[in-house]
Design brief:
The structure is a homodimer of 229-residue chains. With 229 residues, chain A is an alpha+beta fold. Chain A has helices at 10-20, 68-80, 142-156, 173-184, 190-198; strands spanning 24-35, 38-45, 55-56, 58-61, 87-93, 104-112, 127-131, 171-172, 203-209, 219-223. Chain A binds a DNA duplex (30 and 30 nucleotides) through helix 5.
DNA sequence: GGTCTAATGTGTATTAAGTACATATTTTCA
DNA sequence: TGAAAATATGTACTTAATACACATTAGACC
């Protein structure tokens, strides 16, 4: 029987509430970006003394009257100003001792945004884009959360047109391939990559060409209007 | 900034704790079984008046000093007596109004057990195996949780040797195929199915044959010792 | 304007995986 | 001994994944 039922008395009910309704819930967002041919994550300097100097993911406590998905959208919007962004729940992390301030269970989400498209106040709050490679140690269990989300992302990149969210509206196929390569951590064959993307109907040619490149310019593509995220 | 840092005073810290550390956390386990050629789920009659007569998943509140994974193993063991069972977290469900007694966020897990292998007290507590098909309406958001877990299971049955957990130690290939068919909800070609399973090295022949069948008996197989769940 | 550079754009042959499909064999039962 | 019912098995076809090479184009420089 769950402790939430069959109370013997009102006093018993109150006692149960006091002993169980004292966990805090947070959401943590792994916000991926792409710059300098590397996958980046938006992180913030931890302001807990236990993790002084370490980077942490962007997160916040879930408010008492807030759905968890709403909380994740709120965190994202507060930090990046962006609405209607792809956000996906990955899983919960619930080790007792993961947060020094008490029992805080967190729900991890990941999101993908175009760094150049939003103007966040990077001077503010030590908020910063960091290449994943450089984030060896992070506050809390955030490195584990990041790994789990990255793994989920890797599983999905050929299933759903997710990575376009990391690029500007118009991009060359080479840019897309480099992005896939840095997400997957492996090099891909150009012809096979183009074939694989081509059959998915995720792309539309713009008719334009790259500019200011020191070589033959590639065609610019944009995401196919109907392609669902 | 998260509300857990930069307190202006001890009083402020206490206030924050009081307003945020009041969510309860539960785990809900979708425990799959297999009987009468149908996929079954272990459910219990809801004892909340709001859901009188409806079935609910097996769950419990997470204790203050308990990891969430530990909680799910505890629920499973309390209900089935089984230890060391495959259990996988799927995701959190956190709608504000999902539980009538207060804000209870739940983490969903799924598990697979061999019904014939455990002797649970089915008379006890209206605990019962029900075919999934028959569970049209369930208490809370448990039908949604069940659907989500079933979908995850379907994605994994050819990736990991999960379904063997639902069968007795020795089984014929036909039993395995019927199980796959009822999980996936589609019929499979026998020759192609055997080929697909054969390449995975999940099975070992026992050298024995089926008994007491009204036709040519099939060979009995058992799970390959090294095959990871 | 000719040449160099660097990357674009493209096709085919091979292998692996998935799908469709039919017949001989073995055991039990009557 | 024959009928019933399910086992065991192989091949042709299609689709997806992989490996791999060469002609083309725009810019930069002289």
């Amino acid at each position: 029987m769950t402790p939430l039922t069959n109370f013997k008395s009102a006093a018993a009910e109150k006692r149960i509430h006091q002993s169980y309704f004292k966990i805090a819930l947070s959401v943590d967002c792994v916000i991926f970006g792409y710059a300098e041919k590397e996958l980046q994550v938006l992180v913030i300097k931890s302001d807990l003394k236990e993790f002084a100097g370490q980077w942490s993911l962007l997160g916040d406590l879930v408010r008492p009257e807030e759905n968890i998905d709403e909380a994740s959208y709120r965190v994202l919007e507060e930090r990046t100003g962006l609405k209607n962004v792809y956000l996906e729940q990955v899983q919960a992390f619930g080790e007792c001792k993961r947060h020094p301030s008490g029992r805080v269970v967190t729900i991890a989400y990941y999101s993908l945004i175009d760094i150049s498209n939003h103007k966040l106040q990077l001077n503010d709050n030590d908020l910063s884009w960091r290449p994943i490679r450089s984030l060896r140690k992070m506050a809390f269990d955030h490195r584990q959360i990041l790994d789990t989300c990255l793994q989920r992302l890797r599983e999905q990149v050929f299933e759903k047109p997710l990575l376009f969210n990391l690029l500007p509206a118009k991009f060359a196929l080479r840019n897309l391939q480099e992005l896939y390569e840095s997400v997957l951590g492996e090099v891909l064959d150009r012809r096979n990559f183009r074939k694989k993307i081509a059959v998915k109907d995720w792309l539309r040619e713009t008719g334009e060409l790259e500019r200011s490149v020191l070589h033959r310019p590639g065609r610019l593509y944009t995401r196919q209007a109907g392609s669902k995220r």
